[in-house]
Amino acid sequence: MTRTGWVSAFVGAGLIGAVGLGLAPAQAADKYKIYLSMSYIGNDWQGEAANMVKAMAASKDMAGKVDLQVQVSGPNAQKQIQQINAMVQAGAKAIVVYPISPTALNAAVKNACSKGVVVVAYDAEISEPCAHNVTIDQAEAGRVTAEWLAKKLNGKGNIVAITGVPGTSVDTERTKAAKAVFAKYPDIKIVNEAVGLWSQAVARTELSKILATRKWDEIDGLWMQVGCYTANSMQIEAGATADKLKPCAGEGSNGGRIQMLPANTEVEGANGTYKPMSAPRISYASPPYSGALALKLAVQKLDGKEIPQHTTLPLPLVTNETIKLCQEGTWAEMKSGCNAFKPSLVSNPGWFASIFSNDTPEVGLNAALVGQPED
Amino acid sequence: MSAASLDRTEAASSARRRLRLGRNRGPIIAVLAFLICLGLVKGVSGGTLGYYELSTLAAGGATLAIAAIGQTIVILSGGFDLSAAAVISLVNVTLAGHMEDTASSIALWTAGGLAIGALAGAFNGFFIAILRLQPIVVTLASMFILQGVTLLVMDKPGGQIPAGFGALLVGDAIPGLLPMPVLLLLALAGLWLLLKNTVFGKAIYSIGSDRDAARAAGLGVRRHEFFVYVLAGALYGSAGVFISAQTGSGDPLVGNPMLLQMFAAVVVGGTLLGGGRGGPIGTIFGAYVLMLVVNILLVLNVPAFYSSIVEGAILILAVLGASITHSSVLATTLRTARRRIAAHRAGTLPRQLRLEEHRLVLPAATPRIDRPPFWVRHAEGLRNALPAFICFALVLVVTHFMLGSSLVSWRYYDSLIVLGSFLAILALGQGTVILTGGLDLSLPWTIGFCGILCAGLLKGSDAALIYALPAVLAFGCFVGFCNGLGIVALGISPIVMTLAMNGILQGIALVYSGGTPDGFASPGLRWFMTGQIAGVTPVVVMMALFVIGAVVLLGKTAFGRRVYAIGNGVRAAELSGVPVKSTIVKVYVLSGLCAALVGCLLSGFSGQGSLGMGDEYLLPSIAVVVVGGALITGGRGSYIGMIGGVLLLTALQTLLAGTMLPYATRAILYGTVVLCAVVALREKNS
Fold it and tell me: Which Pfam families match (chain A) (predicted)?
């Protein structure tokens, strides 16, 4: 037994050690050691946000200052707590975090703050007061999109609502605000509500279930947290023409944005329903640049500047009136007002297109796609 | 004393020592794995490992450890509990909503947390021990119900736990010497050692080893089993209390992701799935090994996209460490391989020898026996499959009256079959794996990666289907082959092997796609899933053929018979000449193939592949199999029954999607219907 135990010990240590040698971090003493704690990486939004954070760290001004290490804990608050603790122990100067829970990390974050570590959360919030948050106003997102839809329908009609992940603050606040708006219009009726988990694939499954017992004719509009691109595609598949598409208030995926362009627009790489069709839409998003901005703020704080405790990002809203195609997707081009990308550049229609911020000239399309900063 | 008797005593005592070591091998290996991980973190990081670090570590893993102790006890008794994580969330939100900063309120709600857990356990115990239902499906149903109740209690994170309570449970028992979480775990371990030597403790092991033998020996099996679930529930409740203290607030989703981790902790801790061997002490260390993985990833600075791959590898290594002994499967496999090679060199392998035929020549025609009619021959199969279909019919009728004329609308059935096709295909793979007594947890990312791969290879071109589809299906087979090989050749438990594989595939998907999958399904594939010929979606036709093929495969082929034989008893199957190992590998290959097919169809359905697109299919794939009448421990079940399960669950979801009920209520209803279906399935005489 003892012998076999030692054998296993050596095998284990040897194998893990071999991994370790290959990946041992290069220490950079004069740089800020900053960790990115991502809860989960298995979806499109997270992948894109991570790319933008990496690009920010590699940008001209930052590269000499920042030693960024990206860590994934999995969708488990326990592990993220453990991870934040470990980051503090490893000597982090700042931790940029996508919190899996707004509340569960509080104790760990408080502990980090007490050790002088700057903690900046992006997209989702941390309720511990010492943490800095970079988010959009979720209730505003729900309210504005619902108001748009109600106006578009002239205050009358049946709508289908597809929500996000039940039990999260983001979903609850958006949905509550939207419902409060719809309640003001007695002739607007939510006829179906389903959980869409912020995924195009799930949105399609749920819409298919709803359509098993309801026809498109009985639906006048859609309010979706994610899924307008899919809903439009499904209407086209069901034989609808572009001018009959139902108004849809929903997410900022590039597929949805391309569909909003006037139907006769020439777009390179258009394919299937990933093409301009004048779809009546309002497109909003939790912008994936929030992580990059959070990193920038963290560095400013370390440089001795004051940063706000809560940065509320302007809600990126795009309607058929403001939609504009980008040619290359540089930051400068986006600053002049373009907000959709050619399918030949972005082949995944589920990709999130709200990547522009006045505050982050370091990151453009290439940052979101492959983690390359602007130069 | 003569020399001979002295030798005998020595031999006996050394045999006893070996036995004791053998019995405790699981925990010892877990402790070793824990120490290796800790040493690794310390060694690579070069940081300090003082009291502060250790106490943080102790607090971080305590919730998982406590909950996993509960799960261990259930597994020791031969059960399985999927509701554990949901109990943690429910207790967390209840406490966050009610506990006030007074000593009496804290005491009251701590007890309340334990009571909620025990109550949930009693609910499970009632259906499992008293009504003799399968643990996996009862706890799956109660998981849905509990998740619904949790959302009714609190629909988003919030609430407040008194800071004093947090400091009490997470702080120091003896400052600078003993952290409170360690004291708690020591207390639980101590209680377990006391309990282990009571009748109840012995009963847990004996029921888990052999239920019938335990009953024959006069144990009150039902009573003990009931209390196993109550005790486990109370432990999940304690975990919920602890996580409340640790996080200081409530979150309705906090527990859910801990479910699979809990099983991994149990297995890494040396407890055998299926019952009878192992114990909670090993589990505690298993839980900490899993938590230390986070630190290992950090000190090694593993790139984000690779982290789940490394995590999977560490999981496999930790379990494999336990199997490096003379009698382990891995050692046996190596030994057999060595002997075979030696025999091959010497030319003494049976097939090299050109032996004479010695087979018995059987008389050609036996007297014809009157075959009993179809329904008599298949009585058991029908009885198991029927409840799902009856419930399906009920759901159809309810849908008809609540949502309009669905009974006579082909469109309704067409959508139902399209939506159900993914689960029906997965049910063949998962179902066959379950029939052999295994479980395939690698489905989510096999589907996810294969979907992304399929769309990535197609890039919208129909011509590419010719090579893309076979390539993706071959990859699915390869995944299954690796799973099967890990299970039969390395002797890794199916849960750990497939769980690790799932993580590895997630990493591969991220690396392959660079975080943003590109490519899209071809028009042909999209048409196949969403187009219509005379009102029929093409995939419906394929499903008809698929179901026939699957029924023939499981019912009429040698492969099918072997699957059932293995499920009924590996040993008996082996002795009857069933090639057990190769059959098990084939079973996992089949499961991988089915998952890959679903990945392709899903990318056709959605138009593109996306990360995480398979996440919603794991638990349903298990649910349809058990609702369809299969026994989770293997050997019983038919594909037709599983199809009944698919139809029932899909129709039920469609019905619920048509209502305006809030999500929480839907979850509760869903769980209740699943439970009702299996109550109807109950065997009368056991």
Answer: Peripla_BP_4 (PF13407)
Whether residue B517 contacts residue B452, with contact meaning beta carbons closer than 8 Å, is answered with yes
Q: Name the closest residue on chain A to residue B459, using Cα atoms.
A: A347
Task: Provide the token pair at A284.
Answer: 């909003």
What is the residue range of B190's domain? 66-259+276-283
Largest distance between two CA atoms of chain A? 79
What are the structural domains of chain A? Answer: 11-136+287-314 (3.40.50.2300), 138-284 (3.40.50.2300)
- Would the CA dihedral through A136, A137, A140, A146 be positive or negative? positive
Cα-based distances in Å from B200 to B24, B194, B195, B285, B553: 20, 11, 7, 24, 44
- Asked if residue B399 is part of any domain, the answer here is no
Whether B575 is covered by a domain: the verdict is yes
Closest of B476, B520, B482, B488 to residue B500, by C-alpha: B482
Half-sphere exposure of B45 (CA within 13 A, CB side): 23
Q: Write out the DSSP string of B232-258.
A: HHHHHHHHHHHHHHHHSSB-TTSSTTH
Q: Give, as one character, the DSSP assignment of residue A373.
A: P
SS3 label, residue A267: coil
Number of domains, chain B: 2
Q: What is the pLDDT of residue A217?
A: 92
Do A11 and B330 form a contact (C-beta atoms < 8 A)?
Answer: no
Does residue B614 sit in helix, strand or coil?
coil
- How high is the ipTM of this complex? 0.89
B630 contacts B680 by C-beta, under 8 angstroms? no
pLDDT, average across residues A23-50: 77
How many angstroms separate the Cα of A141 from the Cα of each of A148, A178, A313, B45, B191?
A: 11, 8, 11, 44, 52
pLDDT < 70 positions in chain B: 1-8, 322-327, 364-368, 405, 632-634, 681-686
Return the residue in B324, B400, B446, B598 with the most chain A beta carbons within 10 A, the one to mutate for interface testing: B324
Evaluate whether B430 touches B625 at the Cβ level (below 8 Å): yes
Residue window 40-99, chain A: list those with CB within 8 Å of chain B. Answer: 41-44, 46-48, 50-51, 69-79, 81-83, 85-87, 89-91
The continuous run of DSSP H or E covering A143 comes out as helix A138-152
| pLDDT on residue A289 | 95
Residue position matching structure tokens 């109370």: B234
Which one, of A128, A50, A41, lies nearest residue A79 by Cα?
Answer: A41
Tell me which DSSP letter residue B407 carries.
T
Would you say B434 and B621 are in contact if contact means Cβ atoms under 8 Å apart? no
C-alpha A328/C-alpha A289 separation (Å) is 18
- At B361-407, the pLDDT tens digits run 777 666 667 778 877 877 877 877 888 888 899 999 999 888 876 77
A51/B515 touch (CB, cutoff 8 Å), yes or no = yes
Helix (H) or strand (E) holding B52: helix B51-76
Amino acid letter at B187? A
Tell whether B316 is covered by a domain.
Answer: no
One-letter amino acid for residue A295 of the chain:
L
Q: A 276-335 residues with CB below 8 A of B?
A: none
CA A10, A14, A19 angle in degrees (round to 5)? 155
**Distance (Å, whole) CA A311 – CA A122:** 9
Taking the CB of residue A325, how many other CB atoms lie within 10 A of it? 17
B66 and B242 Cβ atoms separated by less than 8 Å: yes
Asked if pLDDT for residue A3 goes beyond 70, the answer is: no
Secondary structure string (H, E, C) spanning B144-168: HHHHHHHHHHCCCCECCCCHHHHHH
Q: Residue B662: which CATH number?
A: 1.10.3470
- List, in order, residues 6 or more apart from B18 with CB less than 8 Å away: A1
Whether A24 sits inside 8 A of B415 (CB atoms) is no
Query: A193 to chain B: nearest residue by CA?
Result: B660
Does B31 map to a domain? no
